[in-house]
Give the backbone structure.
Amino acid sequence: MKHVALALIVGIAAVGCGGKKDPASDPPASGKPAAAPPAKAAAAELATAAEPAGITWKAVEQPFGSVELPTGDGWEMVEGQLEGKDGTVVMLQAQDGITPDQMDDYLASYDEVQRRDAPKYVGKPATKGAVGGAPAARVEGTFDNGTRFVTRDYLIFAKGKVVLLSARVPEAGASGLAGVIDHVARSAAIK
């Protein structure tokens, strides 16, 4: 599992996305001011799973800001990632220079990294929306490195970066995964 996590970290750090220019930002040819674009509807909040029972949380500073992580019995930081006694692994990463308009390109690259680095990875289509008001995507899938794992990741695009909050657990513990990673995502304070 540590090799998959390390490969994922290296792969994500290597992902580069080219931004797309928004043609609406060009000045109009007529010289008249352009009409304001229609207001966008608020994006649906993605991290809505119920709070898991019996977990104590602690705010932990990260280079990108802070998040609340499970603490206490069975939870420990090992080589920069949080591990639970049920096999849950939570990875916290960020990549600077990524903006919300690059989300589609970034998600495509993220999917390529998952397929390359996680054995037998099968992903579901990403769900786009928001986490704490910031543009975000939720990516879910499975992989099998001899043990079948379920994954649930959040990619939050804020303050000129993308923050990746990634969680995986052996399939037998899948029912508790959403509550844990959704709490972590909801608690993210990105600086």
Remarks:
- The two ends are 30 Å apart (CA to CA).
- The chain has three helices and eleven strands.
